[in-house]
Amino acid sequence: MPEIISMGEALVEIMREKIGAGLDKPEVFIGPYPSGAPAIFADCAARLGGKVGFVGTIGNDDFGKVIQDRLRFDGVDLTYFQSKPEATTGVAFVAYFSDGSRKFLYHIRNAASGVIDKSRIVSSYFKGARFLHINGSAVSINQDWKETIYLAIETAKKNGVKISFDPNIRPEILGVDKVRALCQPIIENASIVFPSGEEATMLTGKKDPEEAVFALLEKGTDVVVLKKGSLGSTVYSRGTKYDVPAFEVEEIDPTGAGDCFDAGFLVSLIQKRSLKESARYANAVGALAVTRKGPMEGAPFPEEVDKLITLSKK
Ligand code: ATP
Ligand code: MG
Which atom of ligand 1 is nearest to the CA of 196? Predict the structure, then answer.
């Protein structure tokens, strides 16, 4: 039985080889790389030694095989993962620009990644788990996913499983009001929230990220971990705040850093490290994640994380 359950879209990512090449003209792509925020999280947590189960859907095709092979190889439990013969695996096309921005073109909603039903949420699977990790990207796929995630939250609560939540949702697509409405029932039940500063302010309507964090804590969240890219992270719980600096690395591909960070934090908490130590551990995981091309390729193994932490102390 898993200690951590993650659910949502599994995709392949196909990216531009050259920085600056947009998606609106013929150019060279590379991939397929296994991807999808909830799947990246699951894979990274498994690599770090966590017992993780992933609930999601692929098509019965070669792109689906890329995802399934990777998750299986890294030891993710796939009991409630499914392959749908009549559907095609989800795809994200990505272009990178020299100012660090990214442009995405998704085939998620109308692909296998959009397929889910409530029968995949089985109460016995949640028994003994510590965390149900929810990604905002998954709640916003479609109605089926939204309802299945809300059911998973209820099931988690009945089984004493804590909810962790990474908002990771783009207001450009849905609009801020809809995003807030989708996230509200998750935030109300979450023990840990992992926002970026921008996400925290969007979700709470506060102007300043720290004010937004305090608003989240007031709503009942035990811990808020603010992710700050190359500036590291700050972990807040009632009455405490720790600023934890980033590790210095060369950033090759930022996609997936946030999901790997979340995985590092939860695995570290399960291994009984403190909040502050877990933020440091997660910073190291996030830093290593950006050093390789491909959203899941940089998900590190424990030896790499330990080495980075040890080196930085010297
Ligand atoms: P995404 O949603 O694109 O995956 P995010 O906004 O959720 O990303 P980031 O803040 O970009 O998350 O990254 C998560 C964590 O990874 C950071 O808090 C930091 O610890 C680490 N990290 C990310 N980028 C870098 C970097 N360039 N150098 C060092 N550490 C980094
Ligand atoms: Mg994120």
Answer: 6
Q: What is the pLDDT of residues 154-182, one digit of tens each?
A: 999 999 999 999 999 887 778 899 999 99
State ipTM.
0.96
pLDDT digits (tens, 9 = 90+) for 6-39: 999 999 999 999 999 999 999 999 999 999 999 9
Between the CA of 282 and the centroid of ligand 1 the distance, in Å, is 10
3-state secondary structure of 148: helix
Rounded to the nearest angstrom, the distance between the alpha carbon of 163 and the centre of ligand 1 is 21
Domain parsing of the chain, residue ranges = 4-8+36-80+117-313
The CATH fold of domain 4-8+36-80+117-313: UDP-N-acetylmuramoyl-L-alanine:D-glutamate ligase (3.40.1190)
Say what the alpha-carbon torsion angle 43, 66, 81, 188 is, to the nearest 10 degrees: 50
Give the residue, by CA position, lying nearest to ligand 1 atom 8. Answer: 258
Cβ distance 56 to 113 under 8 Å?
A: yes
